[in-house]
Amino acid sequence: MTEMLDATHVDAFAEKLDGGVTRPTDTDYDEVRALYNAMIDKRPALIARCADKDDVVAAVNFGREQGLDIAIRCGGHNGPGLGSVDKGLVIDLSGLKSITVDPDARIATIGGGCLAGDVDAATHEHGLATPVGIISTTGASGLILGGGIGHLSRKCGLSIDNILGAEVVLADGSVVNADESENDDLYWAIRGGGGNFGVVTQLTMQLHPISMVVAGPMFWELERTGDILRWYRDFIRNAPEDLNGFFAFASVPPAPMFPEKLHLQKVAAVVWCWTGPEQGAADALAEARAQDGLLLDGVQPMPLPVLNSAFDDVYPAGDQWYWRADFVETIPDEAVELHAEWGAKMPTWKSTMHMYPIDGAAHRAGPNDTAWAYRNANWGSVMAGVDPDPANAEAIGAWSRGYHEALHPYSAGGAYVNMMMEEGQDRVEAAYGKNYARLAKIKAKYDPDNLFHVNQNIRPAA
Ligand SMILES: Cc1cc2nc3c(=O)[nH]c(=O)nc-3n(C[C@H](O)[C@H](O)[C@H](O)COP(=O)(O)OP(=O)(O)OC[C@H]3O[C@@H](n4cnc5c(N)ncnc54)[C@H](O)[C@@H]3O)c2cc1C
């Protein structure tokens, strides 16, 4: 605990919390404060382990009254570690796990601390799904509030396009609803504005009748990158919305499900997800299978939650991560050549580049309909340097930065806030583009003192 915090105040606060607090002197402090990205090591003064909305209200009030920096934590997956803060207060939502599903109305209400996998599991029981990303251990609300890209983007839109409403604890400790009929400015802003406006204790999400999918990776020889990426960029833009497929550079994981002779081989890949009738998948993917240099075709029928957790084992918590991202409208031939060059330079086997399609249903909302301004972008790209060994931290960062610098001139300008490091205010403003000024005004209304500033920060308008 820092000198700033009086022990009696902390004790009184802890008494109020059903979930309790974790202090630096507690034996489980290191375990509780650990973030997914082991490159980030933050030591908060206090972690409020909230169990319900009332705990969140008490934590917001305590943090504000004590003048503490406040971080909001759901799944702890944020790349630059914005779910924690040195010497401040972490509002840990991992106790807010309730999920209710109304299968007739096709609506789920999810607690602010649910992980993507929790949401998948609860909705899948009813043959339904909402878009929540490609790794099950990611925090659902962190992912959703920043935008939410995943295997269902082309079919169901971004996660934010599926938010029907939210319960939000504001900076002054009041609790409000944000939806089409109440606080519609806040409803607009939280759909992409991340944790800037308050602590979201509950989200109401639209569900879709998606249960089984035909999905998995296809790997091609890395030397074929030019042909595959040129073919992919044209193919996916014209593919039916039932077909999602993100392009990737990766190394074949050394896991029994892959032929040993391919283990650790660098490949160009597309990870497919077909949500249409199973018998339509072969036709939809025939052209992909006909591309030269195909090394492995792992596409098969599977429940959606299996697809959404397929990468969990490759990417457990505790690895070093450094990533850079950009929105992309077109991939001209010069950019393809640069991708081929940088893909071949992946510094470690877990390092990867993903080019997620964000067209199809994600283009049905306009650039002013939510805080997400880049509805003109067709892809969100991310260059992620990943490795378990801290000794490789410099190498993975340098590759990610170098790759990004080379391709940034071919980008739409800004990047997806959930796939950025802390890259300065210009990059935050670029991420929101023309929507930044409106977001800043809404921030000034709901959080005039910028209490919630440990995030990709939208500063209150003067
Ligand atoms: C392995 C991995 C896979 C990923 N896959 C995807 C993917 O498929 N699709 C995708 O879109 N993104 C993906 N991401 C990026 C991910 O969306 C971000 O890292 C996001 O910040 C993670 O959310 P979290 O809750 O786990 O993070 P945390 O570190 O817990 O929180 C991050 C930030 O989110 C905000 N926040 C979280 N919960 C709340 C809340 N309830 N109320 C208000 N603010 C809140 C806060 O501002 C906080 O600073 C992935 C990240 C990783 C590391």
Largest sheet geometry: 8 strands, antiparallel
Structural class: alpha+beta
Give the strand content.
15-25%
Overall average residue pLDDT: 97
Q: Looking at the structure, what is the overall shape?
A: globular
The Rg value, from CA coordinates, equals 22 Å
Cα distance spanning the termini:
34 Å
| Total number of helices | 14
Oligomer: single chain
User: What ranges have pLDDT less than 50 throughout 5 or more consecutive residues?
Assistant: none
Polypeptide structure, described:
There is one protein chain. Helices cover 27% and strands 22% of the residues. The protein is of the alpha+beta class and 462 residues long. Strands 10, 11, 12, 13, 14, 15, 16 and 17 form an eight-stranded antiparallel beta sheet that branches. Strands 5-6-9-7-8 form a five-stranded antiparallel beta sheet. A four-stranded mixed beta sheet has the order 1-2-4-3. A hairpin with a 5-residue loop joins strand 7 and strand 8 (175-179). The protein is globular and about 70 Å long. Bound molecules: flavin-adenine dinucleotide. The site of flavin-adenine dinucleotide (FAD) has 37 residues, from strand 3, helix 5 and strand 9. Residues 36, 71-79, 82-83, 93, 112, 133-135, 138-139, 141-143, 145-150, 194-195, 199-200, 315, 418-419, 454-455 line the site of flavin-adenine dinucleotide.
